[in-house]
Automatic annotation (TrEMBL):
This is GNAT family N-acetyltransferase. The keyword Acyltransferase applies. The lineage of its organism: Bacteria, Bacillati, Actinomycetota, Actinomycetes, Streptosporangiales. Residues 3-165 form the N-acetyltransferase domain. PROSITE patterns: GNAT. Keywords: Acyltransferase, Transferase. It comes from Actinomadura nitritigenes.
Length: 172
């Protein structure tokens, strides 16, 4: 089945929340405690997605006709003049089918179109599948790490960076 990518709307919040929870649990199984992953509240996740979709500094892209993946972009809050890939999640049943790569390319093109010349992202330390995906797509580990506390659990993350291809203007 052919997939298209579109910008999400607030009406997509319930579907994004469900996909986010299922893909998060699949991707981080064995990397984060089972209780931590199971404790996510679907209603709270939907509320947070409604808020994120209302934030004009962020853009979320989803696959259609079936929502099996989403990506979220916005400005980096700690690296000036840099975009950030805030999230990229694909349903486990659709891993390694090219959907993540297409959505990734779409998200980077959107950041480039906003004038960003580079982008950053954070990856959970130990998430080898994600690191391999991003490295194959031209991202490089910067050597920077951070530790955050998420719902009482310490989470270590690695920062990646890549240059974006500037959009070429059409000459008339």
């Amino acid at each position: 089945m052919s997939r298209a990518i579109r910008t999400a709307t607030e009406a997509d919040a319930p579907a994004i929340a469900r996909l986010h929870l299922s893909s998060y649990r699949a991707a981080y199984r064995g990397l984060l405690p089972d209780g931590f992953l199971a404790a996510y509240d679907p209603a709270e996740r939907e509320h947070r997605w409604r808020e994120r979709l209302r934030d004009p500094s962020r853009t979320t892209f989803v696959t259609t006709p079936a929502m099996v993946a989403f990506a979220e972009t916005g400005p980096s809050h700690d690296v000036p003049h840099t975009g950030e890939l805030l999230a990229l999640h694909v349903a486990e049943s659709h891993w390694r089918q090219g959907i993540g790569g297409a959505l990734h390319a779409h998200a980077l093109n959107a950041l480039s179109g906003l004038g960003y010349e580079s982008a950053v992202l954070w990856v959970l330390d130990g998430n080898r599948r994600a690191c391999a995906f991003y490295e194959a797509a031209g991202w490089a580990f910067t050597g920077e790490t951070r530790r955050r506390t998420v719902r009482g659990t310490a989470v270590d993350e690695l920062r990646y960076r890549r240059e974006l291809r500037p959009r070429r203007s059409l000459r008339v």
